[in-house]
Amino acid sequence: MKDGKRQVAQKQVYDALKLLSKKDPKIKAVDLLEQALDNIKPKIEVRPRRIGGSVYQVPTPTRGLRQSSLAIRWLVSSARLRQNKLYHSFAEKLSAELTDALASTGSAVNKRLEVEKMAEANKAFSHLKW
What we know:
The chain is about 60% helix and about 10% strand. It is an alpha+beta fold. It starts with 5 loop residues before the first helix and ends in a 9-residue tail after the last helix.
């Protein structure tokens, strides 16, 4: 939603769900959306923790609401980054990104993998959790 345009954002999401349901009419579009968001949700993330003048990136499990928030944020931002030459509306971009997320590909899923890889790399600092 940009600049408080809720109805415009709702229309784009519903249009994307219609496009998604046309590709696979047997399964409900809402179920496909939930499955795509589950593929994007990060299970663990890093949070900065200042100890003794140094800042450590400490891996922590991600809470449920934050998982959903990050997944939606990454989905929308990666859909916005798609080229306008290939897609004529934001609904088409969002539908394509959802399709990629269902297949565990696409930039939103790559963002999740990048965050989880960073948490894995900083596993040595996990004892600094609070």
